[in-house]
Inverse folding.
RNA sequence: GCGGGGGUUGCCGAGCCAGGUUAAAGGUACCAGACUUAAGAUCUGGUUCCGUAGGGAUUCGGGGGUUCAAAUCCCCUCCCCCGCACCA
């Protein structure tokens, strides 16, 4: 019989919905599980389904274990992507329009409706509807009655409440902050906005702009190695680029034009006039530390695109400077300011070593520079000044701080590589003034979070370490932006709360959303939230209806919270999950802090990272239509452990489909049997009972893969073995004995098929809502007997293989009684004494016992067992079975291993 | 750089935390056979090497060590992947 997953899955979806199977009421021991809400800007693909599938498997298992499970979900719409896409559609960007047309087509909608996506809300609402549909179809046991989005007004109120608390507790502060920026586009740029930004990351590098005095002006020389300032010998300016005079912080500076263009986004800078570079070259400037006069030399290698276009030269520690000086006739005295621990770094030697002949060997110069820099950074000791004797890496930040304090340097930011936006404009660094931060650097706050981490249930094991690590290095985080969807910052409504910061404690809203929706919107305010969450806010002046709802909401919150398990993928560890912990700790009382977190891997496809260009991105909907939800779930569950990446391989997926078919038709056929199973076949029942027992432990520790492989693949292999050995009819009779329990045990993974089989066998209610099966095993002896028979089959096989014969008779001789006796004695007595007293024949056996510790018979009555299975064995191996102690071979028989002679 | 995770038999991937029951689960691929008009599907057996009796030898990135015994523990070394923030 062919399993028609489409109609069967539809049927159960309908029934679950009709009977509100997954909309729990407060009753009994609760379990709240959450997975971060999806961002709804496009069609879901197989990668999106993973964490929700794992979440659902856990939810379903816990439900079957008798817990009252709530698995809620909402939608994330805050931030810039939706906005950016709708803007591109509005502007007629062909690529984006085609992309969204393809989404519409995928979902069977009219592609011409794409123009509606010019309104961001339409993107959000369209895809959130599709996600509900996709996830429901996947069988996720989500309670949708509690859904909401991060953009809706009620939620905005909640976030405002959250931020007012953070503010009250002094966890929010302001300051300047450098970001990547496009001057032409007037926007900050993220990874997605940068050309090849995902493959070749751009970060912000802090340079130090050092002041060199020239008349009334200051030459601003930018460097990444301010620790070498003591060794400066000259300045380089590029005679081929335009310089200018600008005013900053009450002083006038000389920088390149390009440098000014960028600098003005970092601090207040006013252009005064262009200057002629020739007025500077070969003149003298004064360096700031000792007021030494040093010359300005022409240096065409000075890159106008980097920094300020003014470089100071330290030829003793820079290969560029050394080679640069070689090319002009001047030769200043080299001043060494860093000493290596165990080697001498001489620039001339380095030059030769790297085969650099001149400035034209750019690549080699870059390579050599990197080498020198790394060596001196990690192993170089400062020779002068207050940090004398210290290693560069330990004091570099202090040196920079000193120079700034002394008023002879300022920080200058530069991108880590030359980059441009996807629209072709240069990416620069801008400094955002008065940026709002959440101050995660506060030590007492961190300490509370560490305390929480210490007591949480974290999976996998190394997660704890990763969290502690993250807590250590986490600093202030900017929490608001000037653009994007989301909630306005309550204390400064020019800003929108950044999209990760607005989603840290939202899980609590699931517990109360239905109640909030029944209130008058105007009555929802900070007092109300204080009341619901802390029992403290004054709601006495609100309407009676609202007060009632608030009371119910408070009960519901106290019942469901905290979150028992939050499951997501590992990239969230160092950001979202950490914020999640910090914010809970800051806002909620200790008994509402998160209980457990688990992280899982991602999905790759056909052995590679998913990407459109590789054509290996499969939409969830397509997969569901083609293979069904059960198959998708089964594949994800069994292909890799939760913590590792899953590899979606179409060819393997097809094979899974056959296996599921086989499972279904096997249980379907088993139904038709009427008589009780043969006693000899009860071993398979014993094994199944043990497998189910074991699976319980596996599900508990989220070893879902192991549970699935054992319950499904290994169990199916047992059935196959039994079928081969005893024939189909007998196998089916045995399978019938545990069919219902088998189906139930797999219900968390393949809920639809499980429901179908369960009902086929006359089960009441939903399989999804049954207790997880558990049976007493009275058949273990049968299993031992079977193992013994299996070992005889194995021996038979290896002998026929080696001897290359087709035997017609197998003579089996079990070990003589005295061997059993000695074996028993050897367990309670010292082997050596036994050997001393033994006859020569017995001694040989005892020596063997000493050598081979694996003589561990599993059944005592071997002859009896062989007789019992004689007919089966004979039919299966197609030989006559003779049980006899006669013949030379019997001497070789051991307990647990009878002698076999083939004829 | 900082932090995390890996390198296992054709491939994917278990096992290693609690050393022996591991030539090493499961899947997949391949070979042979059965079935079939044929293909596919399915089933059976096999897939490190040697061996005409259930045996032996050599394997788990490389090197060294601990142990009666190591894929599993310790040390060194080579290589690969991932996260590092304003981006959802």
């Amino acid at each position: 019989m062919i399993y028609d997953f489409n109609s069967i899955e539809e049927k159960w979806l309908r029934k679950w919905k009709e009977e509100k199977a997954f909309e729990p009421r407060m009753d009994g021991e609760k379990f709240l599980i959450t997975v971060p809400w999806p961002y709804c800007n496009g069609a879901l693909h197989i990668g999106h389904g993973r964490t929700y599938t794992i979440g659902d498997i856990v939810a379903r298992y816990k439900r079957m274990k008798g817990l009252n499970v709530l698995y809620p979900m909402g939608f994330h719409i805050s931030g810039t992507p939706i906005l950016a896409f709708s803007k591109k559609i509005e502007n007629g960007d062909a690529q984006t329009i085609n992309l969204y047309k393809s989404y519409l087509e995928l979902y069977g909608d009219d592609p011409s409706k794409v123009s509606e996506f010019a309104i961001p809300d339409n993107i959000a609402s369209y895809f959130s509807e599709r996600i509900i549909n996709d996830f429901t179809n996947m069988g996720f046991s989500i309670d949708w009655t509690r859904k909401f989005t991060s953009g809706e007004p009620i939620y905005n109120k909640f976030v405002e409440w959250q931020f007012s608390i953070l503010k009250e507790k002094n966890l929010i502060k302001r300051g300047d902050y450098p970001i990547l920026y496009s001057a032409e586009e007037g926007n900050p740029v993220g990874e997605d906005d940068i050309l090849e930004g995902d493959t070749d990351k751009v970060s912000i590098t802090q340079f130090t702009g050092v002041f060199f005095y020239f008349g009334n002006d200051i030459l601003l020389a930018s460097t990444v190695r301010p620790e070498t300032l003591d060794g400066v010998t000259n300045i380089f300016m590029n005679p081929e680029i335009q310089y200018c005079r600008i005013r900053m912080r009450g002083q006038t500076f000389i920088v390149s034009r390009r440098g000014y263009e960028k600098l003005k986004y970092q601090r207040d800078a006013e252009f005064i006039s262009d200057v002629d570079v020739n007025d500077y070259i070969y003149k003298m400037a004064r360096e700031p530390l000792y007021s030494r006069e040093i010359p300005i030399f022409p240096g065409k290698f000075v890159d106008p695109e980097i920094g300020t276009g003014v470089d100071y030269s330290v030829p003793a520690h820079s290969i560029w400077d050394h080679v640069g000086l070689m090319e002009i006739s001047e030769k200043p005295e080299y001043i060494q300011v860093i000493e290596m621990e165990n080697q001498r770094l001489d620039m001339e030697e380095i030059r030769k070593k790297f085969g650099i002949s001149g400035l034209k060997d750019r690549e080699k110069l870059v390579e050599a520079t990197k080498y020198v820099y790394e060596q001196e950074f990690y192993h170089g000791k400062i020779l002068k000044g207050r940090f004398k004797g210290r290693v560069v890496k330990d004091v570099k930040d202090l040196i920079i701080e000193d120079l700034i304090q002394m008023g002879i340097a300022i920080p200058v930011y530069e991108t880590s590589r030359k980059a441009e936006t996807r629209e072709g404009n240069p990416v620069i660094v801008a400094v955002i003034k008065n940026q709002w931060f959440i101050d995660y650097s506060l030590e007492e706050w961190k300490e509370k979070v560490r305390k929480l981490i210490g007591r949480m249930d974290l999976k996998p094991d190394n997660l704890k370490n990763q969290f502690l690590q993250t807590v250590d290095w986490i600093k202030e985080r900017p929490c608001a932006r000037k653009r994007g969807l989301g909630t306005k910052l309550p204390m400064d409504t020019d800003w929108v709360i950044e999209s990760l910061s607005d989603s840290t404690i939202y899980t609590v809203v699931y517990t109360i959303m239905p109640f909030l929706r029944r209130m008058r919107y105007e009555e929802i305010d900070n007092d109300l939230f204080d009341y619901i969450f802390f029992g403290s806010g004054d709601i006495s002046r609100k309407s009676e209806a609202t007060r009632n709802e608030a009371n119910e909401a408070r009960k519901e919150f106290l019942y469901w919270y905290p979150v028992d398990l939050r499951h997501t993928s590992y990239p969230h560890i160092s950001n979202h999950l950490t914020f999640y912990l910090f914010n809970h700790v800051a806002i909620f009382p200790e008994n509402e802090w998160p209980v457990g977190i688990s992280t899982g891997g991602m999905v790759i496809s056909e052995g590679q990272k998913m990407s459109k260009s590789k054509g290996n991105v499969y939409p969830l909907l397509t997969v569901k239509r083609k293979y069904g939800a059960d198959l998708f779930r089964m594949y994800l569950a069994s292909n890799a452990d939760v913590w590792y990446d899953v590899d979606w391989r179409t060819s393997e997926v097809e094979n899974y489909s056959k296996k599921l078919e086989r499972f279904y038709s096997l249980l379907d056929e088993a139904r038709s049997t009427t008589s009780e199973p043969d006693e000899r076949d009860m071993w398979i029942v014993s094994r199944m009972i043990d497998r189910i027992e074991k699976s319980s432990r596996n599900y508990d520790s989220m070893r879902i893969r192991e549970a699935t492989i054992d319950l499904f693949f290994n169990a199916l292999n047992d059935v196959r073995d039994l079928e081969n050995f005893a024939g189909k009819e007998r196998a089916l009779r045995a399978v019938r004995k545990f069919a219902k329990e088998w189906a139930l045990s797999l219900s968390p993974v393949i809920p639809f098929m499980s429901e179908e089989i369960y009902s086929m066998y006359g089960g009441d209610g939903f399989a999804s809502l049954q207790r997880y099966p558990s049976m007493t095993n009275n058949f273990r002896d049968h299993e031992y007997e079977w193992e013994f028979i299996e070992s005889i089959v194995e021996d038979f096989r290896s002998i026929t293989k080696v001897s290359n014969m087709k035997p017609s008779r197998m003579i089996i001789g079990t070990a003589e009684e005295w061997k059993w006796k000695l074996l028993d004695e050897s367990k309670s007595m010292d082997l050596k004494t036994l050997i001393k007293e033994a006859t020569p024949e017995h001694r040989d056996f005892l020596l063997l016992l000493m050598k081979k510790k694996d003589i561990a018979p599993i059944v005592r009555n071997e002859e009896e067992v062989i007789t019992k299975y004689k007919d089966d064995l004979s039919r299966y191996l197609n030989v006559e079975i003779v049980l006899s102690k006669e013949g030379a071979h019997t001497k070789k028989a051991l307990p647990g291993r009878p002698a076999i002679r083939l004829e």
Summary: The CA atoms of residues 10 and 733 of chain A lie 31 Å apart.
